[in-house]
Design goal:
The chain is an alpha+beta fold. The protein is built from six helices and 19 strands.
Length: about 350
């Protein structure tokens, strides 16, 4: 029987400020091309409305997590993240997604890949995209994930159970290292930028250098065609410096523009995926940008002032995101000891998705 008539088992989940389909690898075609074709039809891509599929017509809601038992001894499950296009039939595995990652641990317990006992679960996750390990700790009850709780993250209404994510080996997730150009600061078209990869390749610059305040809403930024064209030009040139090659159809590198805080945070950020303004801020984009803020000489370090703490409160269009980045800045080049963030997730639907024929 075909997936069009029998459906494909899946769980739709919100992870952090994103949502998408979570699939067991065993329920999808082994051939990547056939798999991607199936997922595009499940999501309803290409179509800017994704009206004939499960997608939500934005890059934040056109995402897929593929989960399987880990083949590594230091992980319980493996997680492949795929970013699906909305109006273009593209599927990219060139990045992590720390928001969707928040749902991987609960999904692993829901599907029996991991057995949970006691009042909390600890799931070690091999992030296939970057070949790195993340650990998720979250509450359980009677062997099932608990989704209700008092944790609040900006960009998501209400509260939910906390999911603590810690990361190892995130430096150089898709490039040669934390600062893949070999420098903490570069110049592109007369602009000072920092090319950093601590879980995701990101081009960091200041909002002022791009002619904006850094306090605009995502909708306001989206109307500034000159800005978006400049963001795309700079990120493509930065990709060459970072060893990423041609990225015209790729979601990375992301761009993060920084400005002084105005709501009690350490720094204010506006990010682009890869050119569309983000309504919040991705986890790994925040961690990479925070790494720059914490590194002397990098773009954004000027916003740190005399503060010594490693926790960075990043303001974004939907509120705040707290990230914890432990860097050894005495090393040359600087080395990442660890990174972490608090997220939430919620199961929205479990059943079968039926792809467009």
């Amino acid at each position: 029987m075909s997936p069009e008539t029998e459906g494909v088992p899946c769980v739709w989940m919100r992870g952090g400020t994103s949502k998408g389909g979570f699939f067991l690898a065993s329920d999808l075609p082994a051939d990547p091309a056939a798999r991607d074709d199936l997922l595009l039809r499940v999501m309803g891509t290409p179509d800017p409305r994704q009206i004939d599929g499960m997608g939500g017509a934005t890059s934040l809601t056109s995402k897929v997590a593929i989960v399987a038992p880990s083949r590594r001894s230091d992980a319980d499950v493996e997680y492949l993240f795929l970013q699906l296009g909305v109006d273009a039939p593209t599927v990219s595995d060139r990045q992590n997604c720390g928001n969707m990652l928040a749902g991987v641990g609960p999904f692993a317990v829901e599907t029996g890949l991991v057995t949970a006992t006691g009042d909390s679960a600890r799931v070690r996750i091999h992030q296939v995209n970057s070949n790195s390990i993340a650990t998720a700790v979250f509450p359980v009850r009677d062997g099932r994930p608990v989704y209700s709780g008092d944790a609040r993250i900006d960009g998501v209404p209400g509260t939910a159970a906390p999911i603590a994510l810690t990361f190892a080996d995130t430096a150089g997730s898709a490039t040669s290292g934390l600062y893949p150009t070999g420098r903490v600061r570069d110049e592109i078209d007369g602009l000072a930028v920092t090319c950093v990869d601590n879980g995701m390749p990101v081009v960091v610059s200041t909002a002022a250098s791009f002619g904006v305040s850094g306090y605009e809403s995502a909708a306001e930024l989206a109307e500034n065609r000159t800005l978006l064209e400049r963001v795309d030009t700079v990120r493509r040139k930065a990709a060459g410096l970072m060893g990423l090659g041609e990225v015209s159809d790729a979601p990375v590198p992301k761009t993060v523009l920084l400005a002084p805080p105005r709501d009690g945070g350490l720094v204010c950020a506006r990010s682009f995926i890869p050119v569309r303004p983000h309504t919040a801020l991705g986890v790994f984009a925040a961690i990479s940008a925070a790494s720059a803020v914490l590194t002397p000489g990098a773009v954004g370090h000027e916003f740190r002032g005399e503060r010594a703490e490693r926790r960075v409160d990043v303001e974004h269009p939907s509120g705040h995101l707290l990230v914890d980045v432990d860097l050894d800045i005495t090393a040359d080049p600087p080395a990442v000891r660890s990174a972490g963030v608090l997220r939430t997730a919620r199961k929205l639907f479990a059943g079968k998705a039926f792809p467009r024929a």
